[in-house]
């Protein structure tokens, strides 16, 4: 096995594990799932920034599977597993599609988290709408519910990424 392949796999495992640990630290929990965490998406975004979209997609999807299994594997419908976990976290790999400097990296992170919001929005509108108050439009309910925690996650993650980028720039641009 080439050194670069081994490094990519080892870093992927480390960054997935770091995201799992950070995911257990909840700043704020929503009643039907979702929470503001201690930057749980940031390690996956950094990994995607270094290794690119494809590797980031694989690592982020792996994180989604592990999160589902470690959180007890509860779901109302198979669509929830797909949109809340597999696609919902897998899209964080898109952070690797826009990278290069602090601004581009932050834009890549914002894109990835926005795509995650779209995924959980779809899940909310088609699966979790049953928790909406009677007579409330399921799309409106899903938007309000999911933006309540995804908005702060986006702002916190992008702000911290922009702040720490100079410290990680060497890591992100390291020769493979």
Question: What does this entry look like structurally?
Answer:
It contains six helices and two strands; from the N terminus they run H-E-E-H-H-H-H-H. It has helices at residues 3-23, 42-51, 53-70, 78-90, 102-126, 138-172; strands at 26-29, 35-37. Strand 1 and strand 2 (35-37) form a beta hairpin. Helix 1 packs antiparallel against helix 2 (42-51) and helix 4 runs antiparallel to helix 5 (102-126). The longest helix is centred in the last third of the chain and has 35 residues, at 138-172. The mean pLDDT is 94.
How is this fold's topology laid out?
Elements: H1 3-23, E1 26-29, E2 35-37, H2 42-51, H3 53-70, H4 78-90, H5 102-126, H6 138-172
Antiparallel strand pairs: 1-2
Features:
6 helices, 69% helix, two-stranded antiparallel ribbon, mainly alpha, 4% strand, 176 residues
